[in-house]
Amino acid sequence: MTGSNQIVFENVSKFYGEVLGVNRVNLVLPPGVTSLVGPNGSGKTTLMNLMTGLIRPTQGRISVLGLTPDKPEEFFRLVGYCTQFDSFPKGVTGYEFIYQSLKLQGISGNEAQRMAKEAIERVNMGEAASRRIAGYSKGMRQRMRLAQSIAHHPTVLVLDEPLNGLDPMARAEFIALFQALGKDGLHIIISSHVLQEVDKISDQVVLMNYGYVVAEGRIHGVRNEVKEHPMQILVRCSRPNVVASRLFCQDHVVEAKLHPDGKGLLVRTQDADQFYLLLNRIVIDEDIAVETVAPADDDVNSVYQYLIGGSGGTV
Amino acid sequence: MTSFASTRKFFHQAPWQLWTAQLTALIQSEVKRNFLKRRSIWIYLVAFAPAMILLLMVLKNPPTGQDNIQESTSLMANLFQIYYLHVGIFIGCMGIFTWLFRGEIVEKTLHYHFLSPLRRELLVLGKFLAGMVTTTLIFALSVLGSFSLIYAHGGAAGRAFVFAGPGLGHLAAYLGVTVLACLGYGSIFVALSLVIKNPIIPAIFVLGWETFHAILPALLQKFSIMFYLKQLSPVPVPSNGFLALFSVGAEPVSPWLAVPGLLCLCTAILAFACFRIRKMEISYLAD
Q1: What's the rounded Cα separation, in Å, for the pair B115 and A23?
Q2: Across the interface, do B117 and A77 touch by the CB < 8 Å criterion?
Q3: In degrees to the nearest 10, what's the CA dihedral of B84, B90, B94, B100?
Q4: Helix (H, G, I), strand (E, B), or coil: what is residue B159?
Q5: CB contact at 8 A, B93 and B186
Q6: How many other CB atoms are there within 10 angstroms of residue A292's CB atom?
Q7: Which residues on B lie below 8 Å from A72 (Cβ)?
Q8: Are B97 and B159 in contact (CB under 8 A)?
């Protein structure tokens, strides 16, 4: 196994009988926020379950920071997994749920109490913690499951659709929490069908389809690899028609479309780096006032559409 | 490295303190769940039915002191072997031990254990011990209640039998056999729950095996829990007519062999359960 600070999948396949879960996955995930993106049934949850030992690979090897689930005492001190299963032990309060899971870690009573309260506060469930989970809303249950997965201060946090069932305020709150945890140097592996939100927090993405990894890496890098779809770049500037006329003579520029308001243009190019150099020259030569230059499809949503197809709004 | 040396190294380096803390936490939460579950009510009814019936009889026919102690002893022996061992403890253990894992699969909560730094073998052991605490307490109390009511009805003669005769020895033997019965059946049902989704059919098979083990060849009888339990029961139940099928009739084995034999059998069954759980995957949809 390689890399003690990485999550490594080596030629991993999982079959459920004759049904393919994931096939020949080779991945190395560095610290930071990694998003697993793909349609339903693409293998995202399978990959997460494999990573945490809930299921075993049919072939291949997986190591998380150099460890495997076969050594649970070490492995699960470092790993927290917030699954999609919306289920809890019967009759327990939110606090008891977290406290009991910490006690199973072998943590002493006082320390478990302190850590349980800390985790509950972190997901803003302090007021409801003494109530039974059976009376919680879906969003509250989601918060409590997240609290349980982070309560023991894991180094690797695996989150399967963690934004499901949350209202917009809570989503924003959670995204901020994930970002903060990512900045603390944690590995955060997250799957979500809300691509725009994933896009905001991801350092890298793993695109999956039909059990295969279609693309992986930093979003910009993945986007650059999609050669058959020229990059779209939006330029807001004065005299966009002049810019467009200069661009047309370049081979790498596929299209330059003027914005109806006459204050910008949308350029499609095969070579973004060449385009940016050329734009600099045009701006100086023609004395153009530039307001903004921004990629229009350098995000998870576009990458998803290009590589997998579908609406891309939800997966 | 020889296997002896590697075993020695394992025992030397194993995190015993952590395992003890985890096991204690697991047993506490499991015992609480076993006792407070609404679905345990029928087990209480099965366990305490004879004691309740005896209580009603005592209330209806107050002690006269005229009871024949031999009849009381025979009644207790029949009640224990025919009801407790074959029906009450068997069904009670089935209800509690199969639900230890099956319940978590049905309620989709087993993954919380699998995602904790708890060895799966310890999970089996912890749940099994929690089941043992629950069933032993329930059935030992019931046996104690039945025993007390039967001999209390005998008045002075009953008291003399218990406190000045062999009564307390019988009671200790009944309670000991109750613990061993819970141990034996508990291990079977924990292992079954990790192999088969619906434990009813295999439970019927086990019940048949345990009930009719006396007609099996001598070697096969040793793979029956009842084979060992009946050797340890303080009062033999006469094998007459139809009851012969249900009562003890196997070749005698000394308690010094019966107890270790039963413990070996239970250990082997639990080892199989540990092997099963190591391979187990979470796929609630399939269940």
Answers
A1: 24
A2: yes
A3: 70
A4: helix
A5: yes
A6: 9
A7: 116-120
A8: no
Residues from A contacting B (CB-CB < 8 Å) are 16, 49, 52-56, 72-77, 79-81, 83, 85, 87-91, 100-101, 103-106, 108, 148
pLDDT at B241: 61
Contact assignment for B37 to A90 by CB distance below 8 Å: yes
Q: Write the CB contacts of B157 (distance below 8 Å, at least 6 apart in sequence).
A: B65, B67, B69
Q: Which residues of A touch B17 (CB under 8 A)?
A: 106
SS3 A77: helix
pTM: 0.84
Tell me how far apart the alpha carbons of residues A163 and A301 are, in angstroms, rounded to a whole number. 17
- Element containing residue B228 per DSSP (H, E): helix B225-232
The length of chain B in residues reads 287
Which amino acid appears at position B25 of this protein?
A
Mean pLDDT over A242-268 rounds to 86
**Cβ contacts of residue A57 below 8 Å, gap of 6+?**
A12, A13, A14, A50
- Distance from the Cα of A90 to chain B's closest Cα (Å) equals 8
Nearest to A100 by CA among A62, A59, A65, A151: A151
Q: What is the pLDDT of residue A2?
A: 44
Which two three-digit tokens encode residue B286? 């399939």
Taking the C-alpha atoms of residue B107 and residue B113, their distance in angstroms, rounded to an integer, is 13
Percent composition of chain B: helix, strand, coil (DSSP 3-state, to 5): 80, 0, 20
A13 secondary structure, DSSP code: E
Quick check: A64 and A7 in contact, CB under 8 A? Answer: yes
Q: Assess whether pLDDT exceeds 60 at residue A272.
A: yes
Residue among A243, A242, A237 nearest A290 (CA): A237
Tokens at residue A73, please? 């005492």
Q: How many CB atoms lie within 10 A of CB A134?
A: 11
Residue ranges for chain B with pLDDT beneath 50 = 248, 287
Could A54 and B114 be called an inter-chain contact, meaning their C-beta atoms sit closer than 8 Å? yes
Helices (H), chain A: 44-51, 72-78, 94-104, 109-122, 138-150, 168-183, 195-201, 219-225, 240-248, 272-286, 300-307
Are the C-beta atoms of residues B76 and B170 closer than 8 Å to each other? yes
How many A-B residue pairs are in contact by the CB < 8 A criterion? Answer: 79
* Chain A residues lying within 8 Å of B119, measured CB to CB: 72-73
CA distance, residue A314 to nearest chain B CA (Å):
24
B256-267 pLDDT, tens per residue?
888 888 899 899
Q: Is B209 on the interface with A (CB under 8 A)?
A: no
